[in-house]
Input
Amino acid sequence: MITSLMKIDAMNRRQIPFHRAPVGEAEAQAVASALLSGWLTMGTETVKFEQAFAVYVGTKHAIAVSSCTAALHLALEAVGIQPGDEVLLPTLTFAATAEVVKYLGARPVLVDSEPIYFNLDPKDAERRVTTKTRAMIPVHFAGHPCDMEALLGLANDKRLSLVEDAAHAVPARYGGRMIGGFGRATAFSFYATKTLTTGEGGMVTTNDDQIEERVRVMRLHGLSRDAWKRYSDQGSWRYDIRDVGFKYNFTDPQAAMGLVQLAKCDSMHRKREAIATQYSSRLATLDTYRIPRVSDGVQTAWHLYFVLVEEKTLRIGRDEVISELQERGVQTSVHFIPLHLHSYYRNKFGFKPGDFPIAEDYARRCVSLPIYPDMSKEEVGYVVGCLEEIAHDFRR
Ligand SMILES: Cc1ncc(COP(=O)(O)O)c(C=O)c1O
Output
């Protein structure tokens, strides 16, 4: 029931961007001093950031790289994915999760979502295991951890390497433990819109010494692991090319920014959590949108806050809801169009609409709302007011 419907007219119309990066003076100063240090690429700041990140997520190792895409590629390479292997991953994800499998000549095998949190469905994953399946890449969608007990059980039973896509999941917890050390390796993203940002960037975390060694070598042209120091007073000009690697290294100005972001990661998370609570407490009273659920025993990172348009009670569909919000100055997004509906995957693997019903139903009805640490209560209230007005104007 809507008691105090806000009329959104030209007088009280506002502009709410989908994202505003929580970057301030402290980040600017840290980046400036890294630039003025005279060392512009990967160096001691990167080592500090890696150590601090490993402590934060509670893993033995953290290796900083240029993106989460690079992190996923290196992690899969390090666990030994070969041409012809099959790798399970959700259809409800971004391009990166699947393309890295193709980089290695392996086959991405798409899996449907479960209907509560929209993470990879362990039962559907199990049905798709063949003699060629070697790995699984669960995505902690929107920052909500996957069912790790079921996925670790499946990985164990079928002897699959678990490489987690944690692009949305800092800081997220499952059973009290931070996401980062459950699988053989975990990939994080520090992309511009992520919960911890360095503009671009990523991290591989692992408790496995062999994976750490391989990722360190392969992230920088396959050179021996200390080769990055070769221009510094602690290094030597001598290095060895141990394999054909990649140019996926991090840089010190990014690391300097990352250290500042990491120090405020918990407080940024509390602010996103408060925004999610404000959204949910008011939207729960409407039967026109389904709000996100949070499982017992987990902490979601709240990278995304999504609602699903209830087609039984609303006369307009998701696309119109997005347009109506846009007319009121609220920018939104859609995460994601499932991979199997994109032309490459349709043409290459013959997928068609209907193949992954849960992910498709989600993707047809979802809207990601603005959520970022410096979003004010008033701004959140405005977005909710717009959704209430749309519910009122377009109710069946
Ligand atoms: C689920 C998921 N995985 C991977 C990535 C890739 O991250 P990056 O841009 O750091 O390579 C993204 C980026 O949005 C993502 O959403």
About this structure: The pocket of pyridoxal-5'-phosphate is lined by residues 67-69, 93-94, 96-97, 139, 165, 167-168, 189, 191, 202 (CB under 6 Å). The first helix runs from residue 25 to 36. The mean pLDDT is 96. The chain has two domains: 25-263, 265-393.
